[in-house]
Amino acid sequence: MKRDVKPPTSFWVVGFFALLWNVIEIYISTYEITFLQENLTIEEFKVMQSLPYWYIILFLVAIISEILGSFMLLIRKKLATLLYGLSLIALIIIELCWILVFDIKKTSLFMSFVLPVLVISVAILLYVYSKRAANKGWIR
């Protein structure tokens, strides 16, 4: 019979940070559309509005799986690792598409490079942390 390993305080801090990060990520995503609409030319914004359905679906998969992963981490379920992994894959595809396909570098360096790198970095950290938590028995 496996013994229940009590996670350290840092585990709870990371879990709550993950939830807060997801709320911020959703806010930034909605702000990003408004910002781009105000700062892109009409032609550039039309290109952005013509996003393929797969991109939108991947975006929703990434956001939903990361939020669910955060909840699973907080209730100490190993499913968090799978959900964070799914989110990481979707975010890498989305952000690479954003960086390589949508040329908004001249509009905002933050939105075209800094934000995608930050989003992918946090997704990697959450995935790695959840794997570590599973290995240490903090999630089951």
Q: Number of helix segments?
A: 5
Helix content bin: over 70%
Strand content: under 5%
Arithmetic mean of pLDDT = 86
What structural category arises from helix and sheet content? mainly alpha
Low-confidence stretches: none
Reported for the largest beta sheet, the result is:
none
Order of helices and strands: HHHHH
Count of DSSP strands: 0
> So what's the oligomer here?
single chain
Amino- and carboxy-terminal Cα gap: 13 Å
Shape: elongated
Radius of gyration: 17 Å
Topology:
Blueprint lengths: L8 H31 L2 H8 L3 H22 L4 H22 L8 H28 L4
Helix pairs in contact: 1-3, 1-5, 3-4, 4-5
Any overview of this molecule?
The chain has 140 residues and is mainly α. It has one domain. 79% of the residues lie in helices and 0% in strands. It is built from 5 helices and no strands. It is elongated. The mean pLDDT is 86.
Short synopsis of the structure:
With 140 residues, the chain is an all-alpha fold. 79% of the residues lie in helices and 0% in strands. It has one domain (9-33, 61-136).
Which characteristics define this entry?
5 helices; 140 residues; mainly alpha; 79% helix; single chain; elongated
